[in-house]
What we know:
- By secondary structure, this protein is an alpha/beta fold.
- Helices cover 42% and strands 21% of the residues.
- The chain has helices spanning 2-14, 17-20, 38-57, 77-89, 102-115, 141-144, 149-155, 168-183, 202-211, 222-234, 247-253, 275-288, 296-315, 320-326; strands at residues 24-31, 65-72, 95-98, 119-121, 134-136, 159-165, 187-194, 215-219, 241-242, 263-266, 332-334, 337-341, 348-357, 364-373.
- The chain has a five-stranded parallel beta sheet with strand order 2-1-3-4-5, sandwiched between helices. Strands 10, 11, 12, 13 and 14 form a five-stranded antiparallel beta sheet that branches.
- It is globular.
Amino acid sequence: MKSGGAAAAFAMVGAPSILRAADTVKVGLSIPITGLQAILGETLLNCYKLAAAELNAANGIGGRQVELFIEDNQTTTKGSIDKARKLLNEDKVDVIMGTIISPERSATLSVTSKAKKLFFYPTNFEGGECNRYFVATGPIPMQQVDPMMPWVADNLGKTIYIMASDYAWPQKMTEAITAAYEKAGGKIVGADYYPFGTTDFGPAFQKIKSLKPDVVWSMVVGNDAVTQLKQYRSFDIKQPLIAPLDEVFNKDALPPGVAAGTYAPQPYWMALDNPVNKKFISSFREKFGQEKMVNGIGEAGYNGLHIYALAAEKAGSLKDDDVLKALPTIEFDAPQGKIRVDASNNHTLCHSYVGKAAADGIGYEIAKDFGTIAPVTPYCKL
């Protein structure tokens, strides 16, 4: 018995730290379950649940089960700060993931960066973040906009009018759209921003009728996007619309057919024809309902938990710096295609597709595939 005990003790000393630590890997989720982005929060949460279930059905992370700690940040700055502090200080999570719009992200990062704790962000965003402990699994503007604008100029038209919610992501996207579109021979004829909670977009539609742009690009988000798109149709505007819509939003928030014919640049669509995506959709629907849709934000959250798991296992540790060191060395076969994290900025090399909403206003067809786009970040060299 003494000999066996000594051998066991020696084995434990020699084992990676991930195997010697607590029984579970604690993943903190900050999700907008209520508020402006609750429309998208449920799907994001479910994608994290699916990734955790897949990991736990295999070997967990390094033999430890994944335990999710879920908090509703209410789509607010204060809520995001409070929940991040709770997750780190009370729940003692190993990593934080989630949030959707920029104020949620910035508020969460203000907490995680000071604590030097990893924060995985799944949403397409305006860029500008350069923090060793911040990992972006969604695209920045140059990954969505730069490849798309020559295609827009050649296929949709040479002039664009922009209408958007008034916060960081649409503002930086407008800068990127303007630069890339002008390079492709196009022109932005106007851009107007609206505060959250706007109920009347009539002035924008009157301007569209006056300016007569070839294309309208909307970056009105959340519940406001529902109001905006209904009014867009009621004004009988004929120009093609590019908008931040997806299958989840279209099915759960909009009247049938309203989104038909709209375009959107995203790294993921349910229509992607590959075995990994088909399994992802099948597993998601088996777990959450056969009529459920998934989207790019949810897929990026799902990817984030999986790449964290792969990096932690390769590192043999849950220490933040160890995981970060391993992160750029792994590749994940995601539903959108193979992805990896760029070591110079902790941003993900994402795929770039233009989707066009089908006649039912829910699903999308792939209008153009631009392949994998590396994240070019002059603002960040880690």
